[in-house]
Design a protein that fits this description.
The protein has four helices and four strands, in the order E-H-E-H-E-H-E-H. It is α/β, with parallel strands linked by helices. It is globular. The mean pLDDT is 97.
Length: 120
């Protein structure tokens, strides 16, 4: 069974996660056959490991982690690979993979351009 984790940075202000909760809700309504969890690098829960554990408990065998970051900064180049490797080691029965940061996708960049154009 396939699943997805939407992985964000995290913040002290609980309201910061509201768009992530909306994003997960949109995923659930548009792709109800694919499980989705949120995970955060720091300051918020669940952690990446907790999200993988939850999905594994629900029967997921393939999990794709989508970093909801604008670009490949230090966290994604340095911290994230270590967290992903630790999860792969702890959950060897799960096929884990990751995409690039969402902000590196041309369609996402175009959506931002379109958003700006609508604001004019």
């Amino acid at each position: 069974m396939k699943a997805i984790i939407l992985f964000g940075h995290g913040a002290r202000d609980a309201r910061w996660r509201e768009p992530f909760d909306r994003l997960a809700g949109l995923w659930r309504s548009q792709h109800p056959q694919v499980l989705v969890e949120l995970a955060f690098l720091e300051m918020m829960q669940p952690s990446l490991e907790s999200a993988v554990a939850s999905l594994a408990g629900d029967g997921a065998t393939q999990i794709t982690v989508v970093p909801v970051f604008f670009g490949q900064g230090g966290h994604l180049r340095n911290d994230f690979p270590l967290l992903l490797a630790a999860c792969q080691e702890k959950f060897p029965q799960i096929a884990l993979s990751a995409t690039s940061a969402v902000g590196e996708d041309l369609a996402v960049l175009q959506a931002i351009i379109d958003f700006g154009a609508r604001a004019l």
